[in-house]
């Protein structure tokens, strides 16, 4: 398949994915905005006024970047895992598998769909946050790059989950029992210094901590990790997940008998 | 003439130990209308799965228009159009989008994809339904949708796995006409079907699989020549009594106005009519008792099974 044909195939997959989640935007985009608004009301307005500033930052301002990134992570992941698994379940994935579309285009197409939803949800949460506070931007480049790279990373993670999934239960196990705890314990609501020494060390093995802190730096000029470490970890995970996803596609794991 | 598909020593053993294909070899010429027949579990769908990359072969070689799938599966896929046995589209995606997306996966640009989607939806009689979701279609319409989808990238080899299963007679004949038209335009077609009448009507060459082994590979014409006898049912104007007989022919009375007669390969049907005329019996109608190919197919499959059981 020539490069220009590969571009057409990529655009087709991405467009199809965007149309899919926009067709059901009430289920895919709106809930994150509503849940975020609830976080801002409860932790920002109701409880937030009782909580002291964190690193001289109002509590509501401190948690907003983490809540935005949490929505991006969850939606990027769930978009790819549900879309790819549904395609497997309905066997419509065979439309792609019998076509000459290269495996990397299949992976990038689904990933692009996950990123599109992640960014759309991220934007909706940012807009909601304006109702509760004046969101400042310290470094737009950091904000943009961290949100896109994190979304890519979790879209690929969702892809791998979908490849292995054999039932609809399998696509909710990882988000519920792995992803959500990692996000909640990834510094969304508190700084690393709030933990005791032992748990501070444990927390540093959580990659989401680096993403949340780098993203927070983009808004508040405040971070518990170095930006270099954050980018290195995000990029390392993207490369590893890409290689692993390509191996799964090449071997036909969960797709070919 | 070029070979559209060449399969050599194809073996497939599934992880559970089932030997679906045990060294199958055959070829399909370019422009052919080829039938792949066999009872359930014979290995037909496994062969199709291997050609289309959905199933991984254990060993053997598959070449499509001279290109080995091991060397350039991407190019092989470009040449192939596939209509699988099971419905495999997103039931919620509008029909036209399904076709346009399929074209996109083959690198066909949007405008051309739209043009082709409209053309093939018209051809299979689904143009009016183009904005509907496939889950709202009848079984026959869904099958026609899969045929249209398999054509949007204009393949050179079309493989249809039971394309008319569950399709009513009228639509089946419309599809036959459409497939014949495509074949006449130069498209090579491979068909698996349970309707042996379909294979006899449409196909020039045939391969019969049984338990993963090629039981027969010849032209439909040659295969039919193997018939030792054919049984016809004849309806008469005059009442027949229980002693009714025709010299040289084995006759069985069905009722007082119809009977069945075996005509051997070396006998002419004319002779039967002459004998009946001599008795003053006028024939109102005549038909085959069973599909000719069906009889041969059953004979072949059962004889191979007997050979296998004798050997063991």
Total beta-strand segments of chain A: 0
Percent of residues in β-strands of chain B: 25-35%
Total helical segments of chain B = 10
Question: Major sheet of chain B: size, sense and barrel closure?
Answer: 6 strands, mixed
Unreliable stretches of chain B, pLDDT < 50, 5 or more residues?
none
Structural class of chain A: mainly alpha
Which structural class should the secondary elements of chain B be placed in?
alpha/beta
Q: What kind of oligomer do you see?
A: heterodimer
Strand residues, percent of chain A:
under 5%
Helix content of chain B: 25-40%
CATH homologous group name of the largest domain in chain B = P-loop containing nucleotide triphosphate hydrolases
Strand order of the largest sheet of chain B: 6-7-8-3-9-10
Helix fraction of chain A by DSSP (H/I, runs of at least 4): over 70%
Which series of helices and strands of chain A comes N to C?
HHHHHHHHHHH
For the residues shown, what is the average pLDDT of chain B? Answer: 88
With helices defined by DSSP (H or I, 4 residues minimum), what is the helix count of chain A? 11
Radius of gyration of chain A: 19 Å
Radius of gyration of chain B: 23 Å
End-to-end Cα distance of chain A, whole Å, is 24 Å
